[in-house]
């Protein structure tokens, strides 16, 4: 039993490391594609007019506010899972999510870097949700969390690819863990549920876009 678990953990770690090595070449390719796409967009603006494009962007963002429906269902392990499919549309404005921190839904086309990144200040939900779509686990905390716990969690995040961490004073509990469609509260950095959540959800089966980059996005 223990041997099988160790083998599974080793396989996951190897897969994450392989993805990490591939990110650099994928980022170079993405930059080239982005430049090409930008040229096409600029040409379209000249031909079609800026007003039309802006109007379409507003329509998309407004529609997104009402798309996320459903509720959390708490499992026997204490993990809360959103009970309906979460939308993945890219929008240009802010989104009103029905949960805090959000675990999915429409989001900005640019993700927050999540390669073990620790942010000292609050980050935009619309960018962090995109990180969750890539299979990241997001650690958030309030000013009520103990300093020692924050420091220990930051150390864990920094050593784990496909994770990120930031403060969030709007959340209900001092320390919370989020992945796409899933969330739970933990009591401290030593809570065994921290390791369990990371093991299950870092590039876990819930990931809509497994293997997508966690670098090349926003860094602050």
TrEMBL record:
Entries under InterPro entries matching the protein: DUF3105
Region Disordered: start-end pairs: 1-26
The keyword Transmembrane helix is annotated on this UniProt entry: yes
Superkingdom field: Bacteria
Protein keywords: Membrane, Transmembrane, Transmembrane helix
Segments of skewed composition (Low complexity): 1-11
Residue ranges of the TM segments: 32-53
Basic and acidic residues composition bias: residue spans: 14-26
Pfam families: DUF3105 (PF11303)
Designated name of the protein: DUF3105 domain-containing protein
Source species of the chain: Streptomyces plumbiresistens
